[in-house]
Design a protein that fits this description.
Length: 178
């Protein structure tokens, strides 16, 4: 599948929308902003063949981030659409100043974004959401390396249950492997 061309303005609108909806909440910083963008874009790509923004994402310490994430945040702040500042720790804090234009996105795209805002902001800390995005697809990429959207489909096999492990050990013994 070929994704839509990268549209920095759509990424900017996505950030603006997410910050407007969730940015002023305690614990909602850059890590969660980037995760909402990643999961919204990646899931939309997997389901429809087109992401919301076409943005390239790269592997970073806390998970996938849009390559131009910091640039776009700074543009939003320079245009006085948002405020951003360092919080008590190392996390960024955001506040929307001007309401976003929701007409930029198709209603299905907004629905997708809202699902991820609710999931990531409502159920996770920055740490647990990083664990959520640190899947096999993320682990096999080198730091700063691009992450294709379909990498969210890559996964590890699950650990065997105790019953399955016992059966496999017994079979290995029968075959003289143990």
């Amino acid at each position: 599948m070929v994704d839509r061309p990268y549209d920095r303005e759509r990424l900017k609108h996505l950030f603006h929308y997410v910050i407007w909806v969730a940015g002023a909440r305690a614990g909602f910083g850059a890590t969660k902003l980037y995760k909402v963008a990643w999961f919204s874009d990646a899931r939309r790509f997997v389901l429809t063949g087109q992401s919301i923004t076409g943005a390239p994402y790269i592997r970073e310490k806390h998970g996938p981030i849009p390559r131009d994430g910091i640039i776009v945040r700074n543009q939003l702040a320079a245009e006085r659409l948002i405020e951003q500042w360092r919080g008590t720790g190392d996390e960024w804090v955001f506040k929307g100043i001007v309401p976003p234009d929701r007409n930029i996105f198709h209603p299905d795209e907004l629905k997708e974004i809202d699902i991820w805002i609710k999931e990531i902001d409502g159920k996770h800390t920055a740490t647990t959401v990083s664990d959520l995005s640190h899947d096999y697809g993320w682990e096999i990429a080198a730091m700063k390396e691009p992450l294709p959207f379909h990498s969210i489909l890559a996964g590890r096999g699950r650990e065997p249950t105790a019953v399955e492990a016992a059966r496999l050990r017994n079979r290995a013994k029968e075959l003289g492997l143990l």
